[in-house]
Amino acid sequence: MNSKRGRIDRFLASRLQIPSRQAQQLIRQGEVLLNGTAATQVDIIINEFTRIECQGQLLQALEPAYWMLHKPAGVVSATTDAEQQTVLSLLPEIAQTQQLHIAGRLDKYTTGLLLLTNDSRWSEAIAQPSASKRKHYRVTLQNPLTEDYVNAFRDGFYFEFENITTAPAELTIVSDYVADVVLTEGKYHQIKRMFGRFRNPVVALHRYQIGQIELDDSLPEGQARVLTADEIASVG
Fold it and tell me: Which of 20, 62, 120, 183 is most buried when burial is the number of CB atoms within 10 A of its CB?
């Protein structure tokens, strides 16, 4: 069991495959250490980063980890895949042991900023549709852009299949065939579908910023680095 949040007695019962009463007895006997201190209550709430020892056996010792990856095209946003290369395979060996998950996926052929962590609360904060977690994309189109796109993206698009209207999005025309788009949500293939309303295929899609975290200009495609303390703290 990889704990997120839950009672220590339930964690022990599941992890050690013992009855709940036996787990509670171990706690009351002082046999369970949480972050180096003996647990005193059976209902203490733990999370995935609580260091847990029982009778000298280390049961959990996961440290928080936060990574930035410059995702190349052709790699899937998954931790495992039987047939295709995954973004996790691009990370340094140390990251392979950190139980990482992806905070905001990109489709196979989209490039740019991808964040990975083992901190579920941190990744959930990224997913919240708030102004501080805006996602920035550079989009290259097959056909020229006009000012009509700006208004349409601001007004939102109705997607019949899901019966939803997209939240207002910012579109800035960079050149005839290139635009910057800022979203506060992440519907399925949202950007491609919005441009599809203009029958204008997306040639290339690149994410360069999430909230206050910008893709490191010095990070080559396929490479990753640990986030700085300021970058981590910006998500909250």
Answer: 183
With a CB cutoff of 8 Å and minimum separation 6, the contacts of 93 are none
With beta carbons less than 8 A apart as the criterion, state whether 178 and 156 touch: no
DSSP state of 77: S
Distances in whole angstroms, Cα of residue 208 to Cα of each of 5, 112, 216: 32, 6, 9
C-beta separation of 33 from 39 below 8 A: yes
- Rounded Cα–Cα distance for residues 3 and 98 (Å): 14
Q: Which of 99, 97, 74 is nearest to 87 (CA)?
A: 74
Q: Are 196 and 161 in contact (CB under 8 A)?
A: no
Residue range 39-58, pLDDT digits in tens: 989 999 999 999 999 999 99
Q: What is the pLDDT of residues 111-168, one digit of tens each?
A: 999 999 999 999 988 887 665 689 999 999 999 999 999 999 999 999 988 899 999 9
Q: What is the DSSP letter of 222?
A: T
Tell me how long the chain is: 236
Residue 25 identity (one-letter amino acid): Q
Amino acid 75 reads V
- According to DSSP, residue 168 is labeled P
Active site residue 43: no
Q: Which of 43, 107, 155, 176 is catalytic?
A: 107
3-class DSSP state for residue 156? coil
Contact 27, 9 (CB under 8 A): yes
